[in-house]
Amino acid sequence: MLDTETATAGPATWGPRHAHDPTVVRDDDGTYYMFSTDAVANSKDIPSGVHIRTSQDLVGWQYYGTAFDGVPSPAADWTGAQGLWAPEVVRWPGSGWHMYYSASTFGSRTSAIGLAVAPSPAGPWEDRGLVVATRQGEHSQNAIDAAVVLDADGAPWLTYGSFFSGIYMLPLDRNSGKPLEEGDLGTLIARRHASVDGAVEGAFILYRPEEEQYVLFASYDSLFDSYNMRVAVSDSVTGPYRDFRGVTLTDLDASPMLAGTKILGSYQFDGGTGWLAPGHNSVFTQDGPDGSPEHFVVHHVRFADDPSQHMAQVRRLFFTGAGWPVVSPQPYAGHAVEVLPGPEPVAGSWQVLRFDPASTELVQAVTLDISCQGGDDVLSSGAPASLALIIKGMADGSGEAAELDAMVFGSWDWAGGRAALSFSGIDQRGVVWSGTKGARHE
Asked: What number of other Cβ atoms are within 10 A of residue 306's Cβ?
């Protein structure tokens, strides 16, 4: 739903608001493009056809238009959809850009993933028809939420699926971008038990060549109020994908609330906005200031005080010393404003979040003391650093301190309006903690 003010003013006023299921790419001229689910389908005032926004800095976003004039006819004929969902846009090796978009109606397996091509993210986009199509009562799969990964050999694979029978991985033809074998629906790589309605969707896979490892991101639970982001890793693109505790994401005997390592859920810092149900993420990668790859998670999130309102957020994504993905507790504000005024001790008082995988409740930050293994005189200038942190004082039922394999980095404390140290890390039980130093605001 759109609030009254922006519905009246129109898309030009949106910025990153009203973007669901976002993905971001960068064109050769440096412009960032965000593609997202149509905010409102079948509206004479707000068009459908994949919404596009542009940015020069990953922070400020301007509405650009739509990729299509409505739903392309093959997808519309198959599904009856009035809008398009969850577009995935990728630079296709040697031949411009590919977009994989979804068409469906809520809760139905009569769905389709279509393909369009363009010379640049700005378009024009030419529809190439359907890639995967499923039908209620005929297939267990649900053909929505497409994402593409190139494997270690450069071969493309399509990840897709939602609820019902789970997430699938389908090999694509390197030239056409369509399935290698017509009618193939792929290999199952993740699912959840019927006791939680099989609630897994919005999958994305990142290949890390430096580790020869595939990282699966997925969203659990309800997009309306309890979405949370989980990860698992594999040495093969088709799995098995295992979480921190070694649980395979296809194992229906595992606890459906504990499987998958939870890296982000609903939360609120003192004095800050309550963010609800972050999920359906993609990952954007570019060369950082030092020339090494830097990663960003792009996702949507709702406002805790009005869950009907949502927006896209960009966060920095890091990998700990042991290779586990963690995300910043603060949305990205740009490198320049995240620079600390000077080196700062890591040890001290922090506002801390603990993302209990068994809970979908909004986490309120609490004030805790953090120390560093090897001494509390460690200083940080804000450059990302792998550190071993110790947290005492927050009971998790074990009576033990949390020992974190963590990343510490500069960020922008949105509630305090200042540059500040933040951290995110994973403890010995596979639970992720995040926080910002000195972030209490009276």
From this structure: 11
Alpha helices in 80-168 (DSSP H): none
> Residue 397 sits in a domain of what CATH number?
2.40.128.10
- The pLDDT tens digits for 352-400 are 999 999 999 999 999 999 999 988 889 999 999 999 999 986 655 566 7
User: How far is 328 from 315, CA to CA, in rounded Å?
Assistant: 6
Picking from 86, 110, 90, the residue whose alpha carbon sits closest to that of residue 98 is 90
The last residue of a domain, from among 190, 218, 239: 190
- Name residues whose C-beta falls within 8 Å of residue 299's C-beta, 6 or more positions apart in sequence: 22, 229, 264, 278, 279, 280, 281, 282, 312, 313, 315
Tell me the whole-structure pTM to 2 decimals: 0.95
The whole-angstrom distance between residue 84's C-alpha and the CA centroid of its chain comes to 19
The number of folded domains in the chain is 2
Domain residues for 153?
4-190
Assigned domain for 29 exists: yes
- Looking at the domain assignment, is residue 110 inside a domain? yes
- 61, with CB counted inside 10 A (0-12, 13-18, 19+), is buried
